[in-house]
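Q: How do we represent a protein-ligand complex in a form that can be generated token by token?
A: Start from the inputs.
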Amino acid sequence: MNLKLGTLNRLLLFSFLLFPFSLSAQAPDIQHVIVIGVDGMSPDGVLKAKTPTIDSILKVAAYSWKCEAVLPTSSSPNWASMIMGAGPDKHGVTSNAWQPHKQTIELECEGTRGNGKPSGMWPTIFGELRRQKPESTIGCFNDWLAFNRLFEKGVVSRQRDAILLQAASHHGYKGITRMATNYFKRKKPEFMFVHLDMVDHAGHHDGHGTQAYYDAVSVADQMIARIVKAVKESGVSEKTIILITADHGGIGHGHGGDTPEERFVPWILTGPGVVNGELQVEVKTYDTAATLAYLLGIKAPDCWVGKPILQAISQ
Ligand SMILES: [Zn+2]
Ligand SMILES: [Zn+2]
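Then emit the structure tokens for the protein with zinc ion bound:
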């Protein structure tokens, strides 16, 4: 019996050596990409909070606990870098005070608005997808209102932010998640970005590493569960990639500095063709845009610095 099993194993190994690709699946057919960006959610938050959904995703995901945010570890520079494929030295979004009509530096490259005109700002994944695949359905649902200004005007099919009243009471995430899940089920967008803000609020209000902070991460996990469920109910789980990440972590009651607690964020990719395990390569937040471009089948602009994390995806 043992001999037979041993022979079989050797035969399998032999055939694998002869035909190394015959055992791997065909290239996955990716038609939908969703980014869930949880403001201020640190690796510590995910690892210590009760997060059953993320835990089950990690069993099949490619992930890093050391995705590196850019400096300063403020929201705008980091969301911008994530969707713009470069750091603040290139795109000029150096602080939360940044506005598209108040560029801080001379830009070496420029995106395109929905009407085809130059955007006056660094190109984002939203604008590039619209420009390269004009028929794409693109959704953006953001709990933090200022996120809107970070991408080119008129390039998303539908954009909704938290109702002002809810945002003020830090309960915007409920409406955002509901609008995003409804939209996904109705339109099955090629690309959807969901931004949730409650974890950052808990970090400022109660402090990072407090029970209230971990509870907020658990709420984020519940919102992620709703989005995953919507994808399943839409019948497109086998064609949908989800990325869970954050703009920065935090320390004490804030962020902005360069401690590891502020600088490292989770980067968790799941879906068809994703190679399971902890990534053994450096991941920067600005690699996200290039990875999204790769997954969406468009070309990353030459001026993007970030590189697609190909180690996360079976080739
Ligand atoms: Zn933030
Ligand atoms: Zn904050």
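The pocket of zinc ion (ligand 2) is lined by residues 40, 75, 200, 204, 255 (CB under 6 Å). The longest strand covers residues 32-38.
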